[in-house]
Amino acid sequence: MNYVDFMIDPRDENEALKMIEIIHRFGYRIIGTKPTIANSEKIINVSKRYNISIVKRAVLKINTKEDFSKKIKTIDNNCVISAIPGNTSILRYLGHAKRVDLVRIPLNSNLKIDRHQKNIFKTAKKGGIEICLNELIELDTRPFLLRRFKNLVESSLKLDLKLLIASCAKNRYELWHPRQIISLLETMGFNKKLATKTIATYIIPQT
């Protein structure tokens, strides 16, 4: 199984190298990260040695259509783009916006995925939902995050949307083993095959 952690966000090259060592031991074969890390010669060499493919990622927080138009111009064509909507209206807009590959739904937001979103993705013939596991770090003080995580996964799977669950880890201590993610989803009542698919799926950038 080619497991995918489609977003890691290390603070620098040294942390990235430590993370890739663990990522290799965990059995991941594809990772996504920001261009400054992905373009590092050391990172490229270590990844090749471990047979890990790197996908360049960009994450944009979008509150208005004008905001999107301005920010998208700064992103290289070879980046897979996740857009974080500031409200429901922008969530709908991003579902068919050119060059948006994934819509990331923060667990601390009230944004919901419904059939309307599925129809937008279907019409655009692209798109998927991304959820970050590092948001669960605050679970002790914000237990509702786990409920929102479950609801987002459930909605996405019921609507047959492409769903990617990424660690979004900023350091090696925030990485998740694939078995941990699958077990978490199984504990919530999700089918193992579907649970595995969320960390075995990746996409190429829209150009």
Describe this structure in words.
The chain has 207 residues and is an alpha/beta fold. The chain is 40% helix and 19% strand. The chain has nine helices and seven strands. The protein has helices at 13-26, 35-38, 41-49, 65-72, 88-94, 115-124, 144-158, 178-187, 192-197, and strands at residues 3-8, 28-33, 53-62, 80-85, 102-104, 129-132, 163-166. The protein has a seven-stranded parallel beta sheet with strand order 1-2-3-4-5-6-7. Helix 1 (13-26) runs parallel beside helix 3 (41-49). The longest helix is centred in the last third of the chain and has 15 residues, at 144-158. The protein is globular. The model has no long low-confidence stretch (mean pLDDT 91).
- The total of helices stands at 9
Residue share in helices?
40-55%
The outline comes out as globular
H/E series: EHEHHEHEHEHEHEHH
Indicate the radius of gyration in whole angstroms.
16 Å
Give a count of the beta strands, DSSP E runs of length 2 or more. 7
In order across it, which strands form the biggest sheet? 1-2-3-4-5-6-7
What does the main sheet amount to? Answer: 7 strands, parallel
Strand content: 15-25%
Given as residue ranges, the uncertain stretches (5+ residues, pLDDT < 50) are: none
Distance between the termini: 28 Å
Structural class determined from secondary elements: alpha/beta
Rounded average pLDDT: 91
Task: Describe the structure using short key phrases.
7-stranded parallel beta sheet, 207 residues, alpha/beta
Question: Short summary of the structure?
Answer:
With 207 residues, this protein is an alpha/beta fold. It has helices spanning 13-26, 35-38, 41-49, 65-72, 88-94, 115-124, 144-158, 178-187, 192-197; strands at residues 3-8, 28-33, 53-62, 80-85, 102-104, 129-132, 163-166. It has a seven-stranded parallel sheet with strand order 1-2-3-4-5-6-7.
